[in-house]
Model the fold of this input.
Amino acid sequence: MSPYFLAFLLIFGLGRPAREAVDPAKSIPLHSRIPCDGFGGPEQAVHVQVTFSSGATPREFIVSRFEHERCEVNVEIKCLHKEKAGWRDVWSATNTVPNAKPSFGAIVPLASCYEWGSKEPARYILSGWYQESVDSKPAWRQSALRRVSAQPEIYEFTDPNGGTARIQIGR
Done:
């Protein structure tokens, strides 16, 4: 197989199992606690602690950011590659990484404003996912997140096989 074809598969996500579109109703909205003042691009570093129970079913958390429609490749008279508006993944944590600890921490930057100098706040959501089966072409399904605790801020979900995933957010 050509290395160019493999790069194509990786760039366009064809090597990853299918995932349905993110449902904001099953997700938790996230935002920076630093106000968007329209003069810069402040962002808040949010500390997260992720814990996965043991089990064979792959599970993951994803932080997605809403992006407006824009032209990625513009050649003066025509847009050659238009990105549609929608949610784009900006961070994820999964239990399928080889040699990963069942619990690990990370820092997730949340921008306050949609873009530098804008007064429009950035929109983020946290979603939880599980793999439906371990078939040759398994599909990822979104699970509804539920709040376990307000202080500290903790959310979790359970997959149909009983495996759980928990995330604690420290601000």
Summary: Confidence is low (pLDDT under 50) at residues 1-15. The two ends are 46 Å apart (CA to CA).
